[in-house]
């Protein structure tokens, strides 16, 4: 996405960033290698999905998790092995981790999986994009091929 920014707008953006009122994310997804159509992350684990490429859909409400709860979810995911969608019926979602009032779920095609570090990265994208004035964040990271989505609720 390209924006044409004049000098005055650039000054205001820099003030907002410096004041912590908006966040700019330069995160990148974990590196993977592909051998025989199987993705292997840099930690040596395998995954069906190559580092998440997608977009964020914000769904923040007063019931959404706080930043502290999201940080707890991310920490749990960064040490978890295997994030697989195991529910073949109804919601087609599987809760991966819960921390206080926050939950992270993976939804979509049954038996598909992602590296848990990629799920954590997806939560970071939701957190950075959807935070409200009360410090709550909720939403979805939709993987571009629509096979899976990550839900922060």
Overview of this structure, please?
Helix content is 26%, strand content 28%. By secondary structure, the protein is of the alpha+beta class. It has one domain (7-152). The strands form 3 sheets. The chain has a 5-stranded antiparallel beta sheet. Helix 2 (67-79) packs antiparallel against helix 3 (116-130). The two termini are 27 Å apart. Mean pLDDT is 75; it is low at 1-51.
Outline the secondary-structure elements.
Blueprint: H1 7-18, E1 32-35, E2 38-41, E3 46-47, E4 54-58, H2 67-79, E5 83-84, E6 93-99, E7 102-108, E8 113-114, H3 116-130, E9 139-143, E10 148-152
Antiparallel strand pairs: 1-2, 2-3, 4-9, 5-8, 6-7, 7-10, 9-10
Helix pairs in contact: 2-3
- Biggest β-sheet, characterized? 5 strands, antiparallel
Category from helices, strands and their pairing: alpha+beta
What is the ordering of alpha helices and beta strands? HEEEEHEEEEHEE
Radius of gyration based on Cα positions: 17 Å
Q: Biggest sheet: strands side by side, in what order?
A: 4-9-10-7-6
Query: Helical proportion?
Result: 25-40%
| Poorly predicted regions | 1-51
- The number of domains is 1
């Amino acid at each position: 996405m390209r924006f044409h920014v004049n000098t005055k707008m650039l000054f205001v953006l820099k003030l907002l960033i410096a004041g912590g009122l908006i966040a700019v994310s330069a995160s990148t997804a974990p590196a993977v290698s592909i051998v025989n159509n199987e993705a292997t992350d840099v930690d040596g684990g395998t995954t069906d999905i190559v580092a998440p490429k997608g977009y964020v859909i914000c769904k923040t409400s007063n019931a959404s998790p706080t930043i502290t709860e999201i940080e707890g979810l991310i920490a749990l995911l960064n040490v978890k092995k295997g994030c697989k969608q195991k529910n073949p019926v109804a919601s087609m979602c599987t809760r991966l981790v819960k921390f206080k009032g926050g939950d992270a779920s993976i939804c979509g095609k049954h038996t598909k999986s992602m590296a848990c570090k990629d799920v954590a990265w997806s939560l970071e994208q939701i957190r950075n994009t959807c935070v409200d004035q009360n410090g709550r964040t909720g939403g979805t990271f939709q993987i571009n091929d629509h096979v899976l989505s990550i839900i922060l609720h």
